[in-house]
Amino acid sequence: MARLSQSSNPRSIVILTSGTDWGTRAAGQKRSSGAESPIPKRQPAKIKALQQTIAVAGSAIKRKRWHEARYALSRARALTNALPTNAAVQEREKLSALRKTYAARNTPAAKNAKQAKATPAGRGGSKRPTPKKATAKKAAQKPKPTPVRELGDRFIDRAALGYAPADKAKDS
């Protein structure tokens, strides 16, 4: 359905939809990457923008903001493609290290590294503290055995409970 808009321009037409094409419109929209952002014209400005983008990507990876890191890494890739290969060698090395850490974000090796980082440095990697020299005291103390309940043959005194006369209960 089409109608003329309420603006002063008589040729402008607004397309009104009932919402049936929302799925196709959303499919047409893709996630923005950093490559679409504007790239500076001059080489020193490109290098400075690359350094800033690398810093943003590093902080995003450190804080585990993976969407932000992906955006920054794609922007950094666009900036490095705009630069000649001999320019910004250190920045390219930093960028490749960041790409490796981003790629290994959900691997078992990354989880192991995180666990190794979580142990305190003062212990030297050992997880248990050194045992105290009170072994003689522990040898003297023995754990109490659990009491064994001997049920045996039970005799119910029915006369005491009032079910039978006392003289018959003694005979049986």
UniProtKB/TrEMBL annotation:
Residue ranges, compositional bias (Basic residues): 125-141
Higher taxonomy: Bacteria, Bacillati, Actinomycetota, Actinomycetes, Kitasatosporales
Species name: Streptomyces flavovirens
Residue segments, region Disordered: 1-46, 101-154
Composition-biased stretches (Polar residues): 1-21
Protein name (Swiss-Prot/TrEMBL): Uncharacterized protein
